[in-house]
Amino acid sequence: MKNLFLLLLTIFGLSTQDAAACTSIIVSGKATADGRPVIFKNRDTGTLENRMMVVQGRRFRYVGLVNSSDSLPESVWGGHNDAGFAIINTAAYNLNGDEGDTDGDGILIRKALGLCATVEDFEMLLDTIAKPMNVNSNFGVLDTHGCCAYFETGHYKYVKFDVNDPSVAPDGYLMRTNFGTTGNHSLDQGVERFCAITDYMNEAVGKGKFDAAHLICSIPRHFTHGLTKMKLEDFMPATANDVQMFPISDYITRYSTASAILVQGILPDERPENMVSWTIIGSPMTAVAVPVVLLPSGKLPEMLGDDGTGHARLNSLSLSLKNRIFPLKSGNTMAYIDLSKLMNRAQTGTVQLLQPVEQEVVAKGLQTIEKLRRKRDFKAVENYYKWVDDFLAAQYRQLFE
Fold first, then answer.
1. What is the C-alpha radius of gyration for the chain, rounded to an integer number of angstroms?
2. DSSP annotation string for 81-128
3. Pairing of the two strands 158-162 and 148-153
4. By percentage, how much of the chain surpasses pLDDT 70?
5. Distance (Å, whole) CA 310 – CA 294
6. What is the pLDDT of residues 298-325, one digit of tens each?
7. Which of 58, 76, 135, 375 is deepest in the core (most CB within 10 A)?
8. Of 19, 18, 27, which is closest to residue 47 (Cα–Cα)?
9. CB within 8 A of 242, min separation 6: which ones?
10. Which of 71, 22, 27 is nearest to 51 (CA)?
11. Nearest-CA neighbor of 325 among 398, 229, 244, 231?
């Protein structure tokens, strides 16, 4: 009876902001295992086709997460530049009163990546940009000096939250979903996901320092509801043939999750080229994490960048598999999954089959990043990208075709 009650709470608590909502964290280098700060975003959007792109901005070149259809791009949704500045965001629906969402957040991120070298530069950009700014976001930023902060930003003002300030972030981290702490709380969105990411981070910090690769792999697969505390793992059917429909809205990852990005900063004596954007291009239910650095050649893995058709191949593979998990074609199709295709006790769900694949990609990625840090070995990175393309193509074909 208790489980039924919790299930009904989840069903009738479905979010109306799925199409434009995200979950994020920022972590000080003081709280990470290797001393490098991180910013993370699980991206929810109505535009499910995403890819990575290298762009020459007004001052700096950057690698960013973009919509596949945005070839310019006009908007960017996270990334880092060759000066060592990085940025992500989550929409904050309570910062501009009743005006609702805006369409300038990604434009501001694009401008910042092309212009800013430091967190101070970003603050100056906010001070000098024309008002109203046409934004409503929690912008998470970091730089090569170890600065790392959120800026709760609306049309006319912003409030900065420094994660290195113990009075602001006593444990060295902060979280945001779809409200600003300085906004009108009657308009808050994403409260259930804020509860979920808070629980996750509180538990994780109790286990020791945060690890960047572990965060990008685990947060998007944290399938515990923030309010009901229901864990998908507790409801796993026996096999992938035992269809079991289950409500998924308001979990950290759901139908609208198109990608995830975690930017890992650098140590004080490192070069900006050592900055890494760990990326999941596609649904975290059906795609894997791959690290990306900004190479002099501008090369990216074809799996993550333009494969020649304007799309990222990993994203296309992910969306195809996602149709198995969300089989409903009428009604509220976004709200329910066939849990058996995501996870089951026979260990043949998509997240279970892809876990060892991701572990190998991450392990080889960490080895390659270490070569880059020690020897500036750009060729090793290019070789790794080629390996990723071949390995993932073979694994997806073997596991799912």
1. 20
2. ETTS-EEEEEE-TTTTGGG---S-HHHHHHHHHHH-SSHHHHHHHHHH
3. antiparallel
4. 95
5. 20
6. 999 999 999 989 999 999 999 999 999 9
7. 76
8. 19
9. 340, 344
10. 71
11. 244
